[in-house]
Amino acid sequence: MSTSKDSDIQPLKRRIYLLSTAFVGVVLSLSAFFYSSVMEQKQTQARIESLADERLAQLKTSISATVEIIDSVGSFFDSHENVSREQFKVFTRPVLERHPELWGIHWIPRIKGEDRADFERRLRWQGFIGQITALRAEDNSMQPAASRSEYYPVEYSEPIARNRMIIGFDASSRSQNRQAMQKILSQGMSFASTAPFAIVQDKQGSSSIIFFRPVFGPEEPSQDPQERQNNIRGFIAALVKPQIILDALALHDQQTAMQMQDITDAPLTEAAQTNLEDIKEDWLSHMLTFSAMGRHWQFRLSIHPERLDELGHRDPNRSLLVLVSGLAFTFLLIGMIRDLIRTHRLAARERDRAQSYLDTVETMIIALDKDGYISLINRKACELLGCQEQDVISQYWFSERFLSEPDQEKEEFQQLVTGGKRIHQKRYSESKIRTSQGELLLIAWHNAIQYDSNGEFTGVLSAGEDITQQRRLQALDKIRSQAMHAALKGQPLSYVLEQVLKGIEEQKPDIRGSILLLDADGQHLLSGAAPSLPEAYNNAINGVRIGEGVGSCGTAAFRNERVIVEDIQNHPYWSGFKELAASFNLGSCWSEPVRGKNGRILGTFALYHQYPAAPAPSDIELIEGSANFVSMLIEQYQTEARLIQMANTDELTSLPNRRQFMNRLEQEFARSRRYKHPMALCMLDIDHFKRVNDKYGHAVGDQVLKELAVVVQDSLRETDLPGRLGGEEFAILLPDTDTDNASLVAERIRSNLEQMRVEPGNNKTLQLTVSIGVAVLNADTPSDIQPDELLSLADHCLYFAKQNGRNQVSFIATELA
């Protein structure tokens, strides 16, 4: 009886046990399912927020780059009172080539109403329409500007091809521009931007935004609105196409949409968007707001769920897998174990996907735990550091292996740990990292501070960008700007070249620069500038003849190609100079020929090191860029020298022309008056010169004039100045010469010219004579006489000599006065 009851109870117990197990399994499975769904939603939201933050950071980087560009151009205008259109073009061209989102960069000067006519005339002279125009709001077209007390017209714009029509356009006639410009002046801002709008020169294109930067001059601008209004010289404006930036961020991804809106004023204004029309109800979106350039903006990122899956940002099947797993196993322990295994696998897969994604990003990613040890690193970071991931994971970051200044970086990190440094101060930082080859790279970090659920600091996730080349280019731009400024101030070429080398040596303290100039014969190199090389070394190589194997520079100039000598003591090119180099601790020399526009060799640009060294790619870029800039400076000075010579020299005789002679006459006249020294002035004319031209032709006449100029110069002192005033008429200035000495000099010139013989050909010989008139400035000369009157007096004396038989010196100043 009891056995029967026991047998009946066992199935019941088993059923109860099974039902209980099933109930517990179902409850746990459903609980796990709902929990996984909630976590999946949170994870998805976190991923879309992270993706939006990443895209926004890239957008802000583009905005910051534009701000740095217009600040650089503005600084150039601050330090130069007058900037030519060509200088503006040369300065802005490299920037525009690297930044396609910049539609144009403008110089907008402040023009007062009374100066409008001069400004318009200047534009016409330069080949433009030559009229200040204003915006007609009804149809977004331009019309002549009405009379006002002041204007802000566009004077320079690059690239000019697509911005030519706005030269002369009054930027302040557009309300958006006027508000931004007034905000800068009234609120003491350094930069401001407009709301999006359609520009005149691209009416059918995407919306544009203008960034303004004020130009006051070299002095620190005041914060007083009235003073800023009075002292403003103009604005640098950058015309930006946000659409180009968003297109670059989208990377032709049709399953990702972005939108940028100006929310400063109602209604909202769209600046740019990509794929906005493709958004469906199931797409995931996240919206962020930020402020830049005095305005408020809204950025929205939307992405198709499948695209998010492809990027490894979520696993849509995890919650379903958890439910199926829970329901498939009724035993609690087995179900939990399998669920843990599955969860572990999913986590590992997610981690692998995240690592794969990080390895595709061309940004340096490093995560540090709270103690400063590396917990995550991506491919780009390993590439820059020159190491493998397994070699650096769990390594201490704040060491000389990775950083050039580890102690300083460690101190800032410890302040984060202890809460001693505010978070926003560490969002952006810069540091120099050390590669495995010992090279230092400057990295700009964007840091995300990590906390646990209790708000405790757990570490830092940092995204870094190598800005070494960017800063190097900025430094070179500054060096070039300073050199151009010195050149514009009229400093000699040697001083300007020395400033270029000093600037380069400040950026790279381990090098010493040298610039050698090719002489007029094209056979020897002469010292141009070498501020850090010993003077004795510079003197030793000054005038070295170019040729094959003549050091680095002599060979580079001879071959017209770059010559890299990494070890001077063991290179055949330096066999004749290695003792000299060793005495001054010179270990290597990299030389680049400096070429003119037509390929003509102008000299060499060289970098020396104290020890043997091979150039890195950045060094080659530095050498090439510096040589090109030095070439421009040298050709500019040579062109100016030729122009000055042409403007002041007679082309036939190479004597000073009338302009130069009169300038010197006025200077010597004033000096003689001031110090009461005598001064003589001679007028010389060839007797019967017209007969020579009529009988033998102008070619023989020109020959006579050239040989006469040589005889006259040979008859004078170094301090005397001969000049050709025109035709066969010459003048001679004799400083510190009284009446008796002037008479002796004039008679010597007349006698020497009488003995001169000219052979016109056909076995004929010409003998010529000259007549000379002499006037003297001395104590007896009237005090109110002027330089041109003294010249006229000498001319009267010349006329007297002509009238009284020619071939003589007339010295009758007293009678004629």
Automatic annotation (TrEMBL):
What is the species of this protein?
A: Oceanospirillum sediminis
Record domain PAS: where: 350-405
What is the designated name of this protein? diguanylate cyclase
Its organism's taxonomic lineage begins at:
Bacteria, Pseudomonadati, Pseudomonadota, Gammaproteobacteria, Oceanospirillales
Concerning Pfam families, the annotation shows: CHASE (PF03924), GAF_2 (PF13185), GGDEF (PF00990), PAS (PF00989)
Read off the SMART domains from this record: CHASE (SM01079), GAF (SM00065), GGDEF (SM00267), PAS (SM00091)
Domain (CHASE): residue spans on this chain: 79-249
Q: Which residues form the GGDEF domain?
A: 677-814
Q: Which UniProt keywords apply?
A: Membrane, Transmembrane, Transmembrane helix
Query: What cofactor does this chain's UniProt record say it requires?
Result: Mg(2+)
Is Membrane included in the keywords of this UniProt record? yes
